[in-house]
Amino acid sequence: MIKLTYCLHRLPTLTREEFQRYWRETHAPLVAAAGPALGIRRYVQCHTFESDIGAGTAAGRDMPHGGGEDFDGVAELWFDSEEAVAALLGDQEGLRHAHILLEDERNFIDFSRSRAFMVRENVVIGEP
């Protein structure tokens, strides 16, 4: 299994709450519908929120995580393999669903400040 991790920033016209509501209520059902065509095995949305712990981390107080701008959320999508994802590039149904998702993402994601990357998990605690 491999995972696409997507660290998201909202469009500047949206509040964090508006961004997360749209992502949860409008975009998530589109991903669920596209899942079989895109070979998505699991999809998780991680919604950030204000907290004293997060504020301490962002300020660098006694924590080595540094500063920087907070993300509004992180999407995690699991696939069988790199080959399975690459095969979607030749599949018309997969491409159609990928286009639908991309067009919807334009409604709430600031692409210039967001970042996606593929990862392999190294589970240290818990079930793989």
Query: How large is the radius of gyration?
Result: 16 Å
CATH topology-level name = Alpha-Beta Plaits
CATH class category:
Alpha Beta
Biggest sheet, strands in spatial order?
2-3-1-4
Which structural class fits the helix and strand makeup? alpha+beta
Number of helices: 4
Topology as a string of helices (H) and strands (E): EHEHEHHE
Shape: globular
When the domains are counted, the total is 1
Estimate what percentage of residues fall within beta strands: 15-25%
Return the CATH architecture. 2-Layer Sandwich
DSSP summary, beta strand count: 4
- Biggest sheet record: 4 strands, antiparallel
Helix content: 25-40%
Termini separation comes to 10 Å
Parts with pLDDT < 50 across at least 5 consecutive residues:
none
Overall pLDDT metric: 88
Task: Note down, in words, how this protein is organized.
GO terms for molecular function: oxidoreductase activity. This is EthD domain-containing protein. Residues 12-112 form the EthD domain. InterPro entries: Dimeric_a/b-barrel, EthD_dom. The protein has 128 residues and is α+β, with helices and mostly antiparallel strands. It has a single domain (2-119), classed as Alpha-Beta Plaits (2-Layer Sandwich), CATH 3.30.70. Helix content is 40%, strand content 20%. It has 4 helices and 4 strands; from the N terminus they run βαβαβααβ. The protein has a 4-stranded antiparallel β-sheet with strand order 2-3-1-4. Helix 1 (16-38) runs antiparallel to helix 4 (92-105). The longest helix has 23 residues, at 16-38.
